[in-house]
From TrEMBL:
Residues 24-40 have a biased composition (Polar residues). The lineage of its organism: Eukaryota, Cryptophyceae, Cryptomonadales, Hemiselmidaceae, Hemiselmis. Residues 278-291 have a biased composition (Gly residues). Residues 1-58, 226-291 are annotated as: Disordered. InterPro entries: Thioredoxin-like_sf, Thioredoxin_domain. Residues 89-165 form the Thioredoxin domain. This is Thioredoxin domain-containing protein. Residues 260-277 have a biased composition (Basic and acidic residues).
Amino acid sequence: SRGIAGKTTAGPFDSTGGAARPPQSGNSHGTDLNFVSSPTVGEASVQDKPAAAGEGGQQRAIEEYAGRLVHINSEADWHSLQAAHKAAGGLLVAEFRAQFCRKCMAIELKYKKLPAKYQGRAVIFAEIDAQSVGAPLRRELGIDRVPLFTFWSNCEMLDTYLSGKDIGQCMKVVNTRVDLHLDGLDDTAFAGVSLTAPEEPAEEAAPREGVVNMDAMSAWRTAQAKTQSRVVHAPGVSHTATISRKDSTERPPSVSEAAAELRRDLERLEAKKKGEADGGQGKGASASTGG
């Protein structure tokens, strides 16, 4: 039957969409790509195969592609990756994913850590946007569900793994497959590869003790100014007797404290009125006696 790289391969193959490929391990719980409309791809034919590496091509390919996660977003990128893989040798691990796939997002961070874990080993890791590479290439490779991990040697697909329902087991299986296919490979050419750290979202700096948040301070002062200007008066009570706090550096009064202060003001008012009434009665009695 026809192999991925156009060569005749032996052994059982599962034909999907007219493409021959190794039988998928895992199960059919991956996200279906058949209903996805692919963006328009370039004019490069899916029959174009990677060119042979020239002199010094192995080292250039290793330096460019190893030690990091390679992102593939077009058919042309895929063929460039295959050419680099053929020149570099070793193992190629390619994960086919889709932006709408929740499982793909769930395992994304763990997959990005694999280049660091296998630094210095004869392996290249890639992440392929199955939508962006287009339907013709998907049909050729037999990619109809994601996340699908494919394992390559010399541009020949050795193995595939389709993630099942148990996302927690997915990366364990992938690590096991990588170790299996790396067994016996010569890592010498990859030994000096420097690791390119994956880009991670910047974390917000944690608030430091003793550092004043000026926005919060400004909001607090504005609130205190409004509290200071809110004055409640009772008839006969001095303008300075209020239920608001009188010093912006003091703690704002509680509801019970404000009520108690208002009650005292009212009691003082009643006492004042009573005193004025008693004084008026005394003056009236004196006038009657004098008459």
